[in-house]
Write a structure and sequence with these properties.
With 199 residues, this protein is mainly α. It is built from 7 helices and no strands. The longest helix has 94 residues.
């Protein structure tokens, strides 16, 4: 029990006043008790008060410890959540870098493949056959296939970009298309990079 708090003294003084007030009328009636009985009553009252104060003190300590425990649990959950989100963010950045690099490599290889067949056909046509007899159909088909192969992001995800350009949020788009928000953000970033590289 903590007796160094001011409210404890106020309660004790109040209790003494109540006990004293009970004693005075009895004395005036002429039925005064011996000093030992008065002291005993005061001791009992003080003991009762001390027990009540101790119980209140215990209840307060339990309340504070419960609040502290709840706060610590909540803080631990939030810390764990922040760590998970940071990890996911790092993974998404890594994935974005990897996809950007692979997209760039694919684009370069497609450009190289598109330029090689034209050169090879021109060289073989000049060496083996006369220029008037070359077949123009084969290079046209190859260039057409090369043009069709690299679909840009806006063509591949037309519905997603339609919703995004109409002002819908990533949450709404994710629910509508059954995708997660990270994937949508990644597609939008890749499309922006693609526009910058094509510009």
């Amino acid at each position: 029990m903590q007796l160094d708090q001011p409210w404890v003294y106020i309660v004790l003084v109040g209790l003494l006043i109540v006990v004293y007030a009970k004693i005075i009328p009895r004395k005036s009636e002429g039925a005064a008790k011996p000093d030992g009985a008065i002291v005993k009553e005061m001791e009992q009252a003080m003991d009762h008060l001390a027990m009540e104060l101790e119980e209140q003190n215990k209840a307060l300590i339990e309340l504070f410890s419960g609040t502290k425990h709840t706060y610590e649990e909540h803080t631990a959950k939030l810390t764990s959540r922040v760590e998970t989100l940071e990890k996911q963010c790092q993974e998404l950045r890594h994935e974005l870098g990897r996809l950007t690099f692979s997209e760039e490599q694919r684009r370069l290889s497609l450009q190289a493949d598109a330029s090689k067949p034209g050169e090879a056909l021109g060289a073989s046509a000049g060496a083996a056959v006369s220029p008037a007899y070359t077949e123009p159909a084969a290079p046209d088909k190859q260039t057409e296939a090369a043009n069709k192969a690299p679909m840009n992001m806006k063509e591949r995800y037309g519905e997603l970009f339609g919703l995004y350009e109409s002002g819908k949020s990533t949450d709404y788009i994710a629910k509508k298309l059954g995708m997660n928000k990270g994937e949508i953000s990644l597609i939008l970033q890749l499309a922006k990079q693609e526009e910058r590289s094509n510009a």
